Amino acid sequence: MPSSYRVHRVVDADPQTVWDLLTDAPAYPSWNPAVVSLGGRIAVGEKIAMVSAVAPGRTFTLTVDRMDEPREMVWSGGMPLGLYRGVRTFTLVPLDGGRTDFTMAEVFGGPLAPLMNRVVPDMTVSFERFGDAVVAAARA
Fold first, then answer.
1. Hey, how many other C-beta atoms are within 10 angstroms of the C-beta on 47?
2. Which Pfam families has this protein been placed in (predicted)?
3. What is the pLDDT of residues 101-129, one digit of tens each?
4. N or C: which end of the chain has fewer CB within 10 A?
5. For residues 104 and 132, what is the distance between their CA atoms, to the nearest angstrom?
């Protein structure tokens, strides 16, 4: 399995509109088929609980590490002591015409990464669905 994933889309909405979508945790399941549920408050230092469509029987506890509204947000989670860790970064860049260059990337690392990356489900399709959902929901 890859040790990183990335999706990129141009969204026909301004960065603030996309930001508002990405920071409304309870609304995720209503617009994003890649997310079954997202509980908690998306704010720096807060813990959020995500259930993804890739692994619907598992809840991932993530920490919101950084928010630079409306440009960048970083979530991370994984095993204690940094043995295996994923860091997801959302990047929003304003484009002409009120559009947004949206990128979501996740990188996995740590001493157990070579082993864990073999058993973690492939998230390529999930990332593509997430990107497509951002485009559709921001347009609505």
1. 12
2. Polyketide_cyc2 (PF10604)
3. 999 999 999 999 999 988 888 889 999 99
4. C
5. 12
Assess if residue 55 is contained within a domain.
Answer: no
Number of domains forming the structure of the chain: 1
CATH number at residue 134: 3.30.530.20
CA distance 45 to 65: 6
Q: For tokens 């598992």, what's the residue?
A: 58
Three-state SS across the chain? CCCEEEEEEEECCCHHHHHHHHCCHHHHHHHCCCEEEEEECCCCCCEEEEEECCCCCCCEEEEEEEEECCCEEEEEEECHHHCCEEEEEEEEEEEHHHEEEEEEEEEEECCCHHHHHHHCCCCHHHHHHHHHHHHHHHHC
Q: Is residue 49 part of a domain?
A: no
Q: What is the pLDDT of residues 22-81, one digit of tens each?
A: 999 999 999 999 999 999 999 999 999 999 998 899 999 999 999 999 999 999 999 988
| Cα–Cα distance, 74 to 104 (Å, whole number) | 10
Domain with 98 in it:
4-25+68-139
Only one residue has tokens 């209503």, namely 30
